[in-house]
Every structure is written in C-alpha cells, then in structure tokens.
Amino acid sequence: MIPLYWPRVFNEVISVLPGESFYVEAELEGGKLVNMKEVSENSNPDKTIIIKFNQVENETGMMLSIYNPFETVVLKFNMDMVDFFGTPHKTSSCPIMPQAYIFESWPHPIPELIIKNPVAVPVHKMEAVECIY
Hints:
Elements: E1 9-10, E2 13-16, E3 20-29, E4 32-39, E5 48-55, E6 62-68, E7 73-82, E8 88-92, E9 100-106, E10 112-122
C-alpha cells in the first residue's frame, strides 16, 4: 500500500481509501463533531469513531462501516464518492445510531470516499431514521 502524503483527517474532513481501517477521536460541541483527529489506537472509546472501507471479497463492490461511540446522539455525514477520474459524486451516510455501527455498500469500485460535514442529532429529536441519498 502506498503511504498517504496528506492527513486522513483534516479540518473536519475524513479521506478514506479502500483497504483502510482507522480511528478518529472527536468531541461534541453544539450539535457538531469538532476537534477531529486520527489516533493510532482506541484509548478513548467514548469519543472514538471507527472507520473501515473495503472492497467486497471476490467482487467489485465496496463496503463502508462507521461506528458511533457517543451515547446520546445520532451521527450523520455528507460524503463524496470520488471516481477514477477524480470527480466527486455526492451522497450521504445513513443515520448512525448511538453506540452502533452502520454498514453501507455500493455495487461498484470507489477509489476514495470523502466524509465531511458531520452532524450530531440528539436521539430525542430524531423523528425518523431514514437513509436518503
């Protein structure tokens, strides 16, 4: 694997390449995730997001999993799927319930995912859990 020449987490934006699995610590502030930074181990599990992005074995499809470590908020992200020409295609994550994983899949290869605009919604304010693209 080629080592990255840019940080995976920078200015509240997360860049994910196929085959990567890593930890992101974040703090909740006013309905937003702030002070996001990549960490080498999950030493603060109450504020560490776990991200994994892989190609499905023996297939062309991709699988993303994100773990929400927070107890009282649902997380949601905007995402760009970057194609082989470098063109971003907008999408978003499904709501990630407290202390749970989401698993998202696509039937085609994705060379890079950009995860951005993190929002934290208090559980009691969630009217419905919808996954809209």
